[in-house]
Design goal:
heterotrimer; A alpha/beta (338); B mainly alpha (434); C mainly alpha (426); B: 434 residues; mainly alpha; MetI-like fold; 3 domains; 72% helix; globular; C: mainly alpha; 9 strands
Chain lengths: 338, 434, 426
């Protein structure tokens, strides 16, 4: 909003109309900045560094979209949203898109008027326990105290799982991942349950990582993905295809480093369309043809993003698993650029 | 007859008082061991103090100031003081102090914060110290606009034109006041100023900016955090809520039934619900009640709601001040033939406000402490927001005591000095009324 | 100057609405009312339009659908098959529980600290000053977080209490042990206290809303009430005898018998005994279980509010002039009677109004339960229910209404009390 009407707006709060055009894409272009809702702090996925710059796997999606739309991955304003304020933040237009490890579910897609445009991480809910508890399966957790992040789907999954297995538990609600880890490490709960990726990330950074085990049961499907407001299909397309460009790039072996080289040499029409050398893919979603190229150049392809933020080379050390390319037995499958 | 006299002629030199009645022993007896209960309390208190010191000292003594991560801290402590030693890792404060204090404000622009803060102290001075010339108060009145420009940056013409709006308001008010009365004139002035702010400021600002570009780099409000955010929210809310609170207090005492019941309704509603529900209102509900194309940033919405909150409390403080004035003051004003607003301006308010200053200061202390609650709507307050963000960094995962202590100490220094000042003021004011 | 004579009679002109001070106030009120109504209409209209645009409606029927989530500590039975309404009630009860206990504890602690701060004992007075200044100058949120962390980090985990067979053979003591003859166990996640239970049950009645009430407890309470009533009768008779004859009959053994006899008889008959918490596979079971989220919140609310109450108490006592005490002594009153009959009644008049506003604050501050995830009203209705149903408008409005009601009830009680202790002036 315009600074000069600060005082006027305090006086006549409602009359200050911001510039809101018909479509989010126009808004973002006019503003010259993408507003992206992220997690206030989840190691590997989104967290501000010492300079206040957000880094992480979810943040990379924001950067890719900014690069595709505005040509500059740095033109993003990150708005940290808590588990409780995230969907309202998106619905109210406070953010243009949400990239905040949010699970795609039926009711969120319909009742909350969100549109999940893709899945950037296939996850599932797991349990983490201390080895000396002598538990090797989640089925043995009857009577345990379980730490659980509030405001998430995991809360309901947990209740369902224990009910289905006729077990009892005491929930300890925590507000965020960092609190959950603190409680778990202090022994305030026997088990900590959240998305398996989060568990792995937490475990990796714990001082006594060898004493912690992640139980084999995965009790839910948690497809995490970026979301936009319902009813702005064009903007949804922009976010969706900016993300799929990264996935497709990995499939075709296009990396941040070799992009220019591939662009100069490739004969593959699919790659040529992806990089905007052929066809007019960009124009169809209101961008120029090189949007995908810029997105890839900004953050690298999906595999690179994964490796840089949460992959095996980082201290979080997640394996690709379900998130490998479909060609490698995973679920990452970009629809054709055609 | 003997001349032996049994009457002592020269006095004995005074004997020193018994050991138990002098010096340290006397002091101890009187102040620490005056009776069995007292002695027991002393022993208990002493034991507690020793226990506290004993528990905290090794941890504080084993402080590490230079390290890059918590694990490094642990390693250093164990290397220096043995494998079982625990120690404070102040390195996190060293590495992230600027975020605790200023959030993500650009480092190159820190000078603006220092200038703003120094300006704040200067601007408060004439308000608090009555011995300074009254003309300096105009500086205090102008300060918010200067601070606003310094903090958020942007063109200098924005604040100047905002000021022009206020001048317009005052001009319209002065011109119409005699004919239409205070309330109507103020209302017309407000409408005129608002029209000016909403429709005229932007084009004029653009024009002036192109002629004479004077601007600071803009800083977005989402880069505010830490104590900067707490101060911005607290000070803005208290400054804006002062006039609002005065109006509400007057409204509550008014003879006009509708005005009175609206004021009472507002005050009691705000005071009846927890601040956290108001903050959630700012973050979740406000969007329902405003046109769908309205976009406020969250900090602004929070400031508005916190302002309402403090206005209700300030109104009650000022009502207390009004109630403390002797009836004779009102009657004297009436006898002089002053009308309502003249009486308020010249007789009632100067006294009532003076009595209320301690109450206003404690409201501010309360508000300043309450700004930590904004963490629950996703803002970066120093206590929870910044701490959580810092702890999300792998290097500082699981570090709790040090940030808490750091933040607690700063809050304590701020609030303790303010509360001492307000107590001093209370004593001083009491003397004036004796 | 004009002479004070009747102003010339004028007919009513429209412009008098603005220029004439007699009518101006009416004009202003009408304008204010119109503006208020217009604003209200504008807000409601916006809400209507926005809800329409989002395809949402405004109704509370979601309160009767299945909640699906669990609540750790509840006062009345609750499962995840219960409705959101039930969860709301659980949250409200939890809020009331922590508020009432907090008010009681804070009053006790605050009074002690306030009195001790006036003590002539140098050390104690200084320590109490430090107590007051520390707790009231640092945000409550920090105390809540800190108490939560202290309880979780410094207490042993439940498994440290366990005595394994191997340890028993080796004659080893467990790393941690329970307190007070094994009745209290404080682990890093909660406090377990031995609870009285009955071995012979009379059954229970289920109140509407699925709230079971044990008949044993009812019976015990009834017997207690009856004994107390009997004791009052006895005392009254003794007093009558004393007033008639001047000799007070010996009643202590009768009192003891009446007060304790029936209660012990019923307790034995029902098989009242203590159920000790025992360590099971994961945690202590049996007895009362109190989670640390509750304890931390309670302690933090207590110490924070008690610092303010201490100041109120101190101010109240200091407000009573020294002359009152001296006058009472001059009349021959003993110090205890001076305190009870002269000082306290006057000090209370100064203390009670701000004290009750502290109670109000404490109740509102209990909504900071969010920091330790204690499931109070904000945690259930304004937290999980809001999140899972996405009905922020309904949930938030309902929550504000409930808090407002609580506040209004407390302040109307305060007003009644204020009226009753007001100085009766002629």
């Amino acid at each position: 909003m315009k600074k000069s009407v600060f005082f006027g707006s305090l006086v006549m709060a409602g009359l200050v109309a911001g510039v809101a055009g018909a479509s989010t894409l126009d808004d973002v272009k006019a503003r010259g900045e993408l507003i992206c809702g992220v997690n206030p702090g989840l190691t590997g996925f989104a967290a501000p560094d010492a300079n206040g710059n957000y880094q992480g796997f979810d943040v990379a999606v924001c950067k890719a979209v900014a690069a595709a739309v505005l040509g500059d991955p740095m033109k993003v304003k990150y708005v940290p949203l808590t588990g409780e304020t995230r969907f309202t933040g998106l619905a109210s237009g406070e953010v243009d898109m949400l990239s905040r490890n949010s699970t795609w579910t039926f009711s969120r897609d319909t009742e909350l008027a969100l549109e999940f445009v893709a899945v950037n991480y296939y996850d599932g809910q797991g349990f983490m326990v201390n080895k000396n508890l002598g538990v090797s399966s989640a089925k043995e957790l009857d009577g345990a105290t379980v730490c659980i992040q509030t405001g998430t789907t995991t809360e309901l999954n947990l209740a369902d799982y224990f009910k289905a297995n006729n077990m009892e538990y005491t929930p300890v609600n925590v507000a965020d991942d960092s609190e959950g880890q603190q409680k778990f490490l202090a022994g305030a709960c026997d088990a900590y349950t959240t998305d398996a990726s989060g568990l792995a990330a937490s475990r990796a950074t714990m001082p006594n990582a060898d004493e912690i085990v992640i139980l084999p049961e995965i009790i839910s499907k948690e497809p995490l993905g970026p979301a936009v407001r319902q009813g702005d299909d064009n903007w949804g397309d922009v976010v969706r295809w900016s993300f799929y460009a990264l996935v497709a790039a990995e499939e075709y072996g296009v990396t941040k480093a070799n992009l220019e080289e591939v662009a100069a040499t490739t004969k593959n029409p699919e790659i040529r369309r992806l990089l905007g050398l052929e066809g007019d893919m960009g124009a169809k979603i209101g961008l120029d043809d090189e949007f995908a190229k810029r997105a890839i150049l900004a953050v690298g392809n999906y595999g690179e993003v994964f490796e840089a933020n949460i992959g095996t080379s980082t201290s979080i050390g997640l394996a690709r698993g379900l998130n490998a390319q479909w060609t490698q037995g995973g679920l990452m499958y970009a629809p054709p650029f055609r | 007859m003997s001349n032996t006299s049994f009457v002592r002629k020269d006095m004995l030199p005074p004997a020193p008082p018994p050991v138990s009645q002098t010096g340290a022993v006397k002091w101890l007896r009187e102040n620490l061991f005056a009776g069995p209960l007292n002695s027991a309390l002393t022993v208990l208190g002493f034991g507690f103090a020793i226990w506290l010191i004993q528990a905290a000292t090794p941890w504080l003594l084993h402080s590490v100031w230079v390290a890059d991560s918590q694990n490094e801290c642990r390693a250093i402590v164990q290397e220096r003081w043995g494998p079982d030693a625990t120690g404070a890792c102040w390195a996190i404060i060293r590495a992230r102090w600027h975020q605790f204090l200023f959030g993500f404000y650009p480092i190159d622009e820190y000078w603006r914060l220092f200038v703003t803060f120094a300006g704040l102290l200067l601007a408060i001075l004439p308000v608090l110290a009555t011995s300074l010339p009254r003309k300096l108060l105009w500086g205090s009145v102008l300060y918010p606009l200067v601070a606003f420009w310094l903090l958020w940056g942007g063109s200098v013409w924005g604040p100047i034109l905002t000021l022009a709006g206020f001048a317009l308001w005052a001009g319209v008010f002065l011109a119409l006041q005699v004919r239409l009365g205070v309330v109507v004139a103020a209302g017309v002035g407000l409408v005129a100023a608002s029209v000016f702010w909403i429709y005229a400021v932007e084009p004029i600002e653009t024009g002036l900016q192109s002629v004479l570009p004077l601007a600071l780099p803009e800083v977005d409000s989402d880069q505010f955090g830490g104590f900067l955010l707490a101060l911005v929210i607290g000070v803005t809310a208290i400054v804006i809520s002062l006039p609002l609170g005065i109006l509400l207090a007057l409204g509550r005492q008014s003879d006009m039934l509708i005005v009175k019941s609206l004021s009472v309704g507002f005050i009691e509603f705000i005071r009846g619900v927890p601040l956290i529900t108001l903050l959630f209102t700012a973050s979740l509900l406000l969007q329902y009640f405003l046109p769908s194309d309205t976009k406020f940033d969250l900090i602004l919405r929070v400031v508005i709601l916190v302002t309402f909150f403090s206005a209700a409390y300030i109104a009650e403080v000022i009502r207390g001040g009004l109630a403390a004035l002797p009836r004779g003051q009102y009657e004297a004003a009436d006898a002089l033939g002053l009308d309502y607003w003249q009486a308020q301006r010249l007789i009632i308010m100067p006294q009532a406000l003076k009595i209320s200053i301690p109450g206003i200061v404690s409201t501010f202390i309360g508000l300043f402490k309450d700004t930590t609650l904004v963490a629950f709507v996703g803002l970066m307050d120093p206590l929870k927001g910044i701490s959580t963000a810092v702890r999300a960094d792998i290097a500082w995962k699981g570090i709790y005591w040090e940030p808490y202590i750091f933040v607690a100490v700063i809050f304590f220094i701020f609030n303790f000095s303010m509360s001492r000042y307000s107590m001093y003021l209370e004593r001083k004011l009491k003397r004036d009324h004796r | 100057m004009t002479l004070a004579s009747d102003p010339p009679k004028e007919g009513f002109r429209l412009s008098m609405l603005i220029y004439d001070t007699r009518f101006r106030s009416i004009t202003i009120q009408v304008v204010v009312l119109l503006l208020f109504l217009a604003g209200l209409f504008w807000l409601l209209n916006n809400a209507y339009v926005n809800l329409e645009a989002k395809g949402k409606d405004f109704n509370f029927s979601f309160l009767w659908s299945r909640a699906g989530y669990d609540i750790a500590q509840t006062l009345i039975p609750y499962t995840n098959d219960d409705t959101h309404m039930r969860a709301l009630v659980e949250g409200l009860l939890n809020t009331l529980l922590v508020s009432i206990l907090g008010c009681a504890l804070a009053t006790v602690v605050g009074t002690v600290v306030g009195v001790l701060r006036l003590s002539h004992n140098w050390l104690v007075a200084r320590l109490m000053t430090i107590y007051v200044e520390t707790f009231r100058n640092i945000p409550l949120l920090l105390w809540i977080l800190l108490m939560g962390t202290i309880l979780a980090e410094t207490r042993p985990s439940p498994r440290d209490f366990r005595v394994t067979d191997a340890m028993r053979e080796a004659g080893q003591a467990p790393e941690a042990s329970m307190w007070l003859f094994d009745t209290i166990a404080v682990t890093n996640r909660g406090t377990s206290v031995a609870a009285p239970v009955f071995s012979n049950s009379l059954g229970s009645v289920v109140l509407p809303g699925n709230i079971p009430v044990s008949l044993n407890a009812l019976a015990l309470i009834f017997v207690m009430a009856a004994s107390f009533y009997g004791w009052r009768l006895l005392m009254r008779r003794a007093k009558a005898v004393q007033e008639a004859t001047g000799v007070r009959p010996t009643t202590w053994w009768q009192s003891t018998l009446i007060l304790l006899g029936p209660v012990s008889a019923v307790s034995v008959a029902l098989g009242l005994h203590l159920e000790y918490p025992t360590i099971t596979r994961f945690d202590f079971e049996g007895g009362f279980q109190m989670l640390h989220s509750f304890t931390a919140l309670l302690i933090a609310l207590t110490v924070y509010t008690s610092a303010f109450i201490a100041e109120i108490v101190r101010a109240g006592i200091m407000a009573i002039s020294r002359g009152q005490t001296e006058a009472a002594y001059a009349l021959g009153l003993r110090p205890s009677r001076t305190m009870n009959l002269v000082i306290l009644p006057q000090a209370l008049r100064v203390i009670v109004p701000p004290l009750i506003s502290q109670f109000l604050n404490l109740t509102k501050n209990s909504s900071l339960a969010i920091a330790v995830s204690y499931m109070d009203l904000r945690g259930t209705l304004g937290g999980i229910t809001l999140n899972q149903t996405g009905r922020e408008l309904e949930c938030m409005l309902l929550m504000m209404l409930i808090y407002l009601t609580i506040s209004l009830v407390i302040s109307s009680v305060m007003n009644l009390y204020n009226k009753s202790i007001k100085l009766k002036e002629r």
